[in-house]
Amino acid sequence: MRKFAFVILHYNAIDETKKCIESVRALKGQEDIGIVVVDNASPNGSGKVLQSLYSGEAQIKILLRDQNDGFSRANNEGVLLAMKVFAPHFYIVTNNDTEFKQYDFTDRIEQEYQHSHFNVLGPDVYVPEKDIHQSPKRKEPPTFKEVCKTILFNRIFLAFYGFTASYMVNYFKKNTAKGTTMNHKEYQQKVCLVGACLIFDSNYVSLRIEEDSKCPVFAPETGFYFEEYLLRLWCDRRDLAIVYQPKLRVLHHDAVATGSSIRSDKERCRFIMQETLEAAKVYRKFVIGTMGMPALLRCISSLFRVYYYYG
């Protein structure tokens, strides 16, 4: 048994994954730390390279998946393996392009747990290459009307992508160059965190497994986006504690994995729009399923107004 399990999602970018692993192995209290690396079917064979590199090390387990079907499914499998092998109290689910530079990182998690008994904890996610902070993402998750607009706009721009590609590439470049609009220096609760690094306590994982044994952290499973918003809604409806703690910090070398598999800016932009569209559909269905009839009728009415105005 180990108190902390780091679940690292790997895809192609082996040097970044090794840096992430080594940053975890440099933290205080190694006897309490286990590491699971989830290879999301990397086409360059780097998952098998990692498996060979760390074979025989009790602290590190490599999970080789046979298909890349997204962020949420891969992380769910990684957490299930971590539970089986390490039975931790805390799960740190993180991208492979992150680094942990606070020597007492795990001590800070425990200190916050004694203070708030969080179920989900988010650190300050800092991108040094852009000098921006990414968390908290926003105060409230998207409304039904907002997600309907997202679906409509992505459908339109994808349908005419040959004409809109240059505009969308510039839009995404400007958008990703910006950090959070919220105060990243302020301790906050009930906010939407960033999926690059999330910390779950074992009580949260147990509650998730009661609902779906295959989904210990993220459900419903999407491809690559909207996981944080679904997480926030699910926690709100069960009165679970989501905490943003700026005294915890991770470095995030953003979009390394995506960039390693997509050659051009136009291809990457199309990928983001397609996956955003599919994830937004899942989110909309989840929101509808939790609405009462009066709220649903109001949202349908607003949806017709959106389509009338923008259609």
How does this structure look, described?
Strands 1, 2, 3, 4, 5, 6, 7, 8, 9 and 10 form a 10-stranded mixed sheet that branches. Helix content is 48%, strand content 18%. It has 2 domains: 4-138 and 182-257, Spore Coat Polysaccharide Biosynthesis Protein SpsA, Chain A (Alpha-Beta Complex), CATH 3.90.550; 141-179 and 262-311, no CATH class. The chain contains 11 helices and 10 strands. By secondary structure, the protein is an alpha/beta fold. Helix 2 links the parallel strand 2 (33-39) and strand 3 (60-64).
What class, by secondary structure content?
A: alpha/beta
- Named CATH topology of the largest domain: Spore Coat Polysaccharide Biosynthesis Protein SpsA, Chain A
Indicate the low-confidence ranges by residue numbers: none
H/I helix tally = 11
Radius of gyration, in angstroms, nearest whole number? 19 Å
* Global mean pLDDT: 91
CATH architecture of the largest domain: Alpha-Beta Complex
Whole-number tally of structural domains? 2
Along the chain, the helix and strand elements come as EHEHEHEEHEEHHEEHHEHHH
Query: How far is the first residue's CA from the last residue's CA?
Result: 56 Å
Beta-strand percentage? 15-25%
| CATH superfamily heading of the largest domain | Spore Coat Polysaccharide Biosynthesis Protein SpsA, Chain A
